[in-house]
């Protein structure tokens, strides 16, 4: 039980506890006013003091110094302790603020890293704002540039990037800003590299991929389309990207002509050395690149490499290994090192890969069962066995389930089939594993580091659809948050922040407090770990919901 009293002119809060049916005073909390004089000036300070009694006697301690609070808060505390009405109901107003706090987090990160200075080489302020909107849009809305106008409708993206409503996100404006950054791109890239790595890059990951531009453009930029797909009606465009060991991109380059890795890598090395001062790099390739650029070529260039081998190479290596070294179904080792024929192989495990392979295998077998039952019902009597075998074989090839099925014709010329369980069990034992081959020396690189390099490449492949600065911000956030113990997908975590409803409590038109509504303990811990809580304060607000278009 708590009640108020006045002791020596001080406002007190008395806390009583009930023991054996009798109320006993446990402690007394007082709001004390202390006056002092220094150099002929009078000063007042207020603090909350707690007095309590224990076995050793009467004790007192200062809980909080109220002098640091504003005069409005101090007045509210006095009124509350006097049991007086703080304000009339009509004077209170609870206004829900914008819930687009994902934009607030990105804007605060943008200001904290000083990315405004990175785009200083873009002289036109409107181009800088549009580029910032494109970067934020790539992180928050997984869509192309032309659909950003629809995805950003009703949000505060324009306000976060200081854009006027009349400017909007028109297609011509996007391509104009895209082309406007071409002349200053090397300076932007150099600034991003300097801010992320501080010149300490010792490893470079590389990948070569393709992309396309959509929409209509008077500069004919939209004509550049898919590459390596043998589409003669569309010229090709190739992207090459290099990242550091943490997966943060340090270089990206667009090639208009179709090329292979053997012609791109030497030029990329010259660019990295000339622009960023990187003289040595380790190249990491995805599955399929091994046929285009062999390890012998890289060894002749004195360059290290890590490449994912094909499934056929994986099975060939398994057949060469002795039975005691082959991974079994019950062996869930995360990593296995093998040296064979002068090369170092690493067999790694990925949990989601097993799930994907299992779902694909079940889908293929299920579809094949239905077709085989239908084929068995409609099989013609007296049909030639060779023709029947050819028809079933073609059908199984189309379903990609030839290795899962055994079939034939019995003595009564009847068609039969069954599942090949041994092949399914053999595939299940290795369906969550993939093979990496490298020319690096085990004495210089650990298997864990090689595996980490390939995982960084996989993350870079997924981010190719975004613009380079957007991927730079995402990878930088991942690196910063992982140091704080948060391993979450950046766009997914930012979308979760939209569930929080910040509200501003005003008394007689003056802001009194900021309330956070619908925030769970788990999400609150994430905000504290990622240091994103300041983005929810009124000073970081992006405006009211009514201000959005």
Automatic annotation (TrEMBL):
<protein>
    <recommendedName>
        <fullName>Transposase</fullName>
    </recommendedName>
</protein>
């Amino acid at each position: 039980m708590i009640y108020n009293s006045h002791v020596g002119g001080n406002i007190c809060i008395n806390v009583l506890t009930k023991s054996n049916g009798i109320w006993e005073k446990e402690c007394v909390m007082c709001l004390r006013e202390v006056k002092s004089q220094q150099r002929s000036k009078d000063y007042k300070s207020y603090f909350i003091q707690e007095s309590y009694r224990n076995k050793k006697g009467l004790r007192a301690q200062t809980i909080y110094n109220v002098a640091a609070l504003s005069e409005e808060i101090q007045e509210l505390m006095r009124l509350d302790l006097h049991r007086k009405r703080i304000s009339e109901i009509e004077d209170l107003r609870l206004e829900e603020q914008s819930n687009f706090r994902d934009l607030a987090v990105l804007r605060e990160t943008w200001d904290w890293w000083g990315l405004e200075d990175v785009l200083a080489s873009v002289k036109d302020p409107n181009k800088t704002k549009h580029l910032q909107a494109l970067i934020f849009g790539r992180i928050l809305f997984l869509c192309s540039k032309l659909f950003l106008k629809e995805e950003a409708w009703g949000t505060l993206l324009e306000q976060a990037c200081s854009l006027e409503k009349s400017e909007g996100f028109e297609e011509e404006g996007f391509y104009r800003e895209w082309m406007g950054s071409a002349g200053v791109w090397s300076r932007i890239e150099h600034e991003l590299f300097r801010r992320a790595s501080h010149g300490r890059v010792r490893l470079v990951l590389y990948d070569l991929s393709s992309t396309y531009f959509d929409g209509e453009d008077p500069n004919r930029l939209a004509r550049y389309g898919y590459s390596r797909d043998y589409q003669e009606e569309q010229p090709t465009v190739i992207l090459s990207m290099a990242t550091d060991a943490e997966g943060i991109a340090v270089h990206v380059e667009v090639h208009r002509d179709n090329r292979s890795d053997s012609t791109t890598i030497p030029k990329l090395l010259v660019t990295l050395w000339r622009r960023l001062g990187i003289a040595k790099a380790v190249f990491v390739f995805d599955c399929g690149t091994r046929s285009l650029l062999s390890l012998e070529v890289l060894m002749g260039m004195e360059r290290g490499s890590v490449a994912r081998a094909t499934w056929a190479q994986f099975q060939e290596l398994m057949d060469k290994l002795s039975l005691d070294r082959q991974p079994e179904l019950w062996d869930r080792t995360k990593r296995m090192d093998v040296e064979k024929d002068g090369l170092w192989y690493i067999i790694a495990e990925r949990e989601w890969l097993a799930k994907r392979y299992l779902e694909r295998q079940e889908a293929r077998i299920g579809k094949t069962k239905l077709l085989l039952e239908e084929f068995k019902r409609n099989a013609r009597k007296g049909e030639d066995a060779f023709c029947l075998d050819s028809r079933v074989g073609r059908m199984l090839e189309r379903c990609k389930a030839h290795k899962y099925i055994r079939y034939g014709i019995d003595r009564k010329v009847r068609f039969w089939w069954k599942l090949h369980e041994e092949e399914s069990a053999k595939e299940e034992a290795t369906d969550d594993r993939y093979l990496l081959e490298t020319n690096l020396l085990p004495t210089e690189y650990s298997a864990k580091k090689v595996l980490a390099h390939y995982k960084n490449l996989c993350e870079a492949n997924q981010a190719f659809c975004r613009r380079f600065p957007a991927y730079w911000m995402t990878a930088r956030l991942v690196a910063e948050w992982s140091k704080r113990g948060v391993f979450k997908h950046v766009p997914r975590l930012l979308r979760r922040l939209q569930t929080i409803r910040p509200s501003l409590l005003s008394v007689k038109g003056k802001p009194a407090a900021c309330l956070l509504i619908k925030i769970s303990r788990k999400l609150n811990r994430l905000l504290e770990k990622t240091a994103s809580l300041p983005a929810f304060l009124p000073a970081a607000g992006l405006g009211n919901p009514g201000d959005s278009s």
